[in-house]
Amino acid sequence: MRTRLAPTISPDTEFFWNGLREHRLLIQRCGGCGTLRNPPQPMCPKCRSLHWEAIESSGRGTIYSFVMPHQPKFPFFDYPYIVALIELAEGVRLVSNLTDIDPAEVRTGMPVQVYFQQFDGELVLHQFRPAG
Question: What are the domain boundaries of the chain?
Fold first, then answer.
């Protein structure tokens, strides 16, 4: 049994998943107006430019929101587990798992730091834990 579901990779998101394999958290920056965006998209929602570049995030951020799913139970997760919406220092948000913390201690605004975890040989995912 797999330990995580594999993501669907498209030409628009391939750079992101390749970055994770290299232990780099990449986000898009519009080549037209400089706006950062996540999730990856082919067109800038602000200026409609199709030109963009990938920049590396510092991996630092804060918890914007979080949930602890209880149902449905997936055999590849240890319960309870924490799904967090992380606001990166660069200003964009992304969804990830929060680890290495008692669920009762999780608070919005808490500083966190990315780390990378390998699953099933080739799959590398971003995970977050308390900073410091």
Answer: 8-56, 58-132
d(CA 82, CA 90): 22
The Cα–Cα gap between 11 and 113 comes to 27
Rounded to two decimals, the pTM is: 0.90
54: phi then psi, degrees, rounded to nearest 5: -95, 130
Strand, helix or coil at 130?
A: strand
**Under 8 Å between Cβ of 4 and 120:** yes
> What class does CATH assign to 58-132?
mainly beta
**Distances in Å between the alpha carbon of 111 and those of 29, 58, 60, 80, 106?**
23, 13, 7, 21, 10
Pure H helices in 8-126:
14-21
The pair of three-digit structure tokens given for residue 94, joined into one six-digit string: 């992304």
- pLDDT, one tens digit per residue, over 1-14 is 457 777 889 999 99
The Cα–Cα gap between 113 and 80 comes to 20
